């Protein structure tokens, strides 16, 4: 499965507690520092995809101001996939940081000789 | 119901009824909460996201009813077939490049360096290569790259059709190029996985294009016209489609491939149209006329039969 950024953010948003649709949008906004603002159509495409892959499931429903509000939670499989993806991204980031450090120290060395 | 809610529910009518029955209330609740106070109507971004969701659902999103899955398979196949053709076309063109480059006599074949002709020649080779990149990208599970490259590859056709006085040929070329690209945009969402069977299939159009060029050269050497209706890429595509027909028929009750084959055949028919219509006007030889008509004669029954078979074997819509 191709993990897109909205999918990653939605999964991360559900790690600590079950949330409803707008709760996920808000949390994704916060996690991305205001950069990713999910549209509702996009959100439900993501939720369908994640639920279809068994990574999230319905937690409970409640009536709110006469409308339906559904809360979603992360499954164990979802936590596992998220962990793998986060580890992959962390490893890539570490490689980049290490190379950049090597580059800047090489420059420093050249500068002093 | 506030006007905003009414307008949002109207936008949600883009979604299929079964999906709305499940999701509408929840989506309205989420939207109204997200909208806060000051919004009068749903923004264009929101409408676009619902359109994208609608395409995703109608073309076989997760948990979709079998009919949607079948349509999704058909549309995805049309996208792949169209891009595969452009890839073969690119390979066919590139295969001829060494010969053109080695042809010292007439600089006019590829234009002198810096001339408009040269730019045109680069475009002729470059844009189909973009479509080839799109094909490789979609086969390797990179839908975003594929979409960008496919749109780029379709630009010449778009430019030709939106020019001052587009000919029938320009319009038909646009349809032929644009339909698979539109299919790609609709049926391959950003998180689409690569097609299950065979990254190795990626090389098939490239090889087919090279073989096609070889055959066309051999035909020319044997005294025939180099680009007769059969030995040009479109003619070879007709042959390939007709050859594939028995295999698709043997798959029985599979609506996706049958519908895709019918659509591909229809596109090839459409692109042959200017040639057939123009035949009395151009003094084409009887032989060339016969070849064009033969191709149409092969395509028409193929399109009709497979469209009918595909339609009949579509799973029923959910009541």
TrEMBL record, chain B:
Keywords annotated in UniProt: Membrane, Transmembrane, Transmembrane helix
Keyword flag Protein transport: no
Domain of life where this protein originates: Bacteria
Tagged with keyword Transmembrane helix: yes
Regions that span the bilayer: 77-101, 121-139, 146-165, 171-188, 200-222, 234-252, 259-281, 287-308
Identification of the protein by name: Uncharacterized protein
């Amino acid at each position: 499965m191709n993990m897109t950024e909205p999918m990653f953010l939605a999964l991360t948003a559900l790690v600590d507690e079950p949330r409803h649709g707008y709760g996920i949008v808000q949390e994704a906004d916060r996690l991305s520092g205001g950069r990713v603002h999910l549209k509702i159509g996009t959100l439900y495409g993501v939720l369908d995809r994640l639920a279809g892959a068994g990574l999230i499931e319905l937690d409970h429903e409640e009536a709110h101001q006469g409308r339906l509000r559904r809360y979603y939670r992360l499954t164990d499989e979802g936590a596992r996939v998220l962990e793998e993806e986060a580890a992959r991204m962390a490893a890539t980031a570490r490689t980049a940081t290490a190379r950049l450090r090597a580059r800047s120290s090489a420059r420093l060395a050249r500068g002093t000789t | 119901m506030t006007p905003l809610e009414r307008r949002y529910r109207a936008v949600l009518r883009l979604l299929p009824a079964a999906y709305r029955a499940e999701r509408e209330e929840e989506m309205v609740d989420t939207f109204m909460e997200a909208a806060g106070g000051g919004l009068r109507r749903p923004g264009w971004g929101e409408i676009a996201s619902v359109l994208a969701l609608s395409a995703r659902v109608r073309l076989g999103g997760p948990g979709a009813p079998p009919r949607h899955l079948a349509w999704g398979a058909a549309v995805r196949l049309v996208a792949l077939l169209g891009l595969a053709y452009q890839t073969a076309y690119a390979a066919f063109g590139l295969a001829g490049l060494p010969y053109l480059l080695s042809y010292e006599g007439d600089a006019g074949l590829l234009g002198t360096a810096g001339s408009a002709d040269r730019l045109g020649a680069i475009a002729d080779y470059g844009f189909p290569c973009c479509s080839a990149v799109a094909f490789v990208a979609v086969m390797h599970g990179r839908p975003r790259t594929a979409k960008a490259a496919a749109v780029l590859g379709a630009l010449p056709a778009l430019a030709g059709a939106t020019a001052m006085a587009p000919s029938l040929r320009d319009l038909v070329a646009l349809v032929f190029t644009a339909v698979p690209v539109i299919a790609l945009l609709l049926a391959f969402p950003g998180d689409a996985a690569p097609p299950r069977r065979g990254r190795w299939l990626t090389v098939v159009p490239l090889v087919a294009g090279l073989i096609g060029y070889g055959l066309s050269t051999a035909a020319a050497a044997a005294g025939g016209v180099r680009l007769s209706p059969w030995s040009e890429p479109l003619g070879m595509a007709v042959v390939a489609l007709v050859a594939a027909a028995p295999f698709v028929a043997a798959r029985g009750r599979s609506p996706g491939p049958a519908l895709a084959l019918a659509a591909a055949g229809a596109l090839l028919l459409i692109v042959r149209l200017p040639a057939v219509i123009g035949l009395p006007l151009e003094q084409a030889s009887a032989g060339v006329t016969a070849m064009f008509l033969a191709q149409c004669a092969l395509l028409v029954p193929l399109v009709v039969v497979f469209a009918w078979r595909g339609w009949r074997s579509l799973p029923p819509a959910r009541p």
